[in-house]
Amino acid sequence: MRHLPSRPTRASRRRVLGALAAGLLCTAGTAVPAAAHSPAPAPAPTAVARAANGLALTPPMGFNNWNSTHCRAEFNEAMVKGIADIFVEKGLKEAGYKYVNLDDCWALPERDAEGKLVADPVRFPHGIKAVADYVHAKGLKLGIYTSAGTRTCDSVGLPGALGHEFSDARQFADWGVDYLKYDNCNNQGVDAVERYTTMRDALAATGRPIVYSMCEWGQNKPWEWAAELGNLWRTTGDINDSWGSMLSIMKQNLPLAAAAGPGHWNDPDMLEVGNGGMTDTEYRTHFSMWSVMAAPLLIGSDLRTASQETFDILSNEEVIAVDQDPLGRQGEVLSSEDGRWVVAKEMADGSRAVALFNETGDARRISTTAAAVGLPAASGYTVRDLWQHTTRNTAGGLSATVPAHGTVLLRVAAGHRWAAYPPAVGLALEGSPLIEAGRTAALTTEVTDLGRTPARTVSAALAGPAGWRVRAASATRTSTLPTGHALTTRWQVTAPAGTAPGSYDLTLTARYRSPAGEPIRSTVPFQAHVVVPPPAGGGYLSDLPRLSASNGYGPVETDTSNGESAAGDGHPLSIGGQVYAKGLGVHAASSVEFYTGGACETVTAQVGVDDEKGAKGSVTFEVRADGEKAASTGVLTNAMAPQPLSADVTGAQVVRLVVTDAGDGVDSDHADWGDLRITC
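Above: the chain sequence. Below: its structure as tokens.
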């Protein structure tokens, strides 16, 4: 993972920089009393109830500048005021967004002679109170940032609040601050619970309602203790604008559902929607899954330059309603087999929000039932698609073909209202959409009636790119489709000779009528992959075309290490001092697929964490053949020598190389597939 200069290493976060003997902290080389510039704290209450401050009874919604600006010069008063203006002009305030939050770098590097924080006069020439007044005049709220250490996380090292908690909290309150993000850098080894408790007490002593966000990175399992201190707590390290990072953080946050509730929320970090590192499909998944997890929705993109698609995602009120549901339940995982996730969230009105999430690189059918998501037995159910904004009835089956990296988000309810809506149908593609140019591939589609009522006058059509031949080899129509029955159609699909390898769009369209005669059209996109067979005898996999590739940070690199975020910024592959001229450099979580066409036998490699990350990083490696695990390693760290890995892939159509974060987050997980070969 790329480490910005403003974020210290794990080692620097944990090390004790000075003795704490005699109640002293060493700050900028000078010993000062630990409670300098702070009045004596009030006695701690004998018991602290959850949501004791009565705030954030639904997950906070707003904006934070860090993901889009870091500490660059464009983070300033004009930007903050501009975001407040956009909240009002673009309807985001009406949709529920109300916090405009400043992150690191708003202050000068040193306190004044009285030990007070001073706003950077270049960035904020009118001071923080003036900014707060401007934001408040818009009917919004202002948030601010500091760290539970002697310095913040920026490399310059701006003043932290450790030892200044009561003084700083008083300043924040006097300025009109409504939200505090409290980071974890330069914490001097002081116990986390102690540090975050002190700031809790300091905020309470101001008498001003201030939402308390604890950015402890999940290092000390805050979900087990932080509900008594504040309103939300980070469960992971920092997110970055990549599919792998978002996916890794989601997987770490999902198991913590029991800790979340009104006034106390798991925080998997800010939104990356609109920053450009993921597709719109992936951003819709990001927004959907954060909402199902009852996560804070803090926009991390610069809305002054955001696309209309970004605004459409962020302002989807039906998805926001899932996040903001007053019952405050975090969604729970019902299944995740083979990357097909079903996550269900109980809602205050008795309905269920159901996310059908496809982790894989191809469209997949994902199914569950109303009973499985916790709904009572009923004669029928209504199913609302929260992205398509359509409502259908179902007899109880819930199914959708979900695009690669996509999410279908449903709201499902029992009751008699189902009869007012047409039946739901499920569209699916069976068979592998892998096509060699000039050769005909056989595909099969299904249109299934999931509804409580029959679908009538049903037809199916499959379309491909211009110049492709798509021919039906069986019936494409039926007069009536009863509940649970399917129209199955076989197709012959041919890509013209000379078609370049790559992904191409296929579209399955079903048309039908409800019992009342209402015409319905349902469409699902698929991707067909034009592939070339591997060379006889095999060779280095890094020399062969990839079927698909996803990476936790930056692109998958060919014959070099992962490097940082840009393509081509890696170094020679090096594990434990052993350098490899050929292979792949990746960053967890990573998946790279190759078409092998049933013609290959063995994949071999020397694997491990690349030396470019020093002593950091921990990963696991897997080789999968047509989805089945063919070989794997245990947890590998940078301290280990390269490990040999060999997998039998005989007969497989597709070989997938997988690197995971070993369950501890993706920080510094640069992984190498050294000397990566395949025999065919």
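Residues 192-206 form the longest helix (15 residues).
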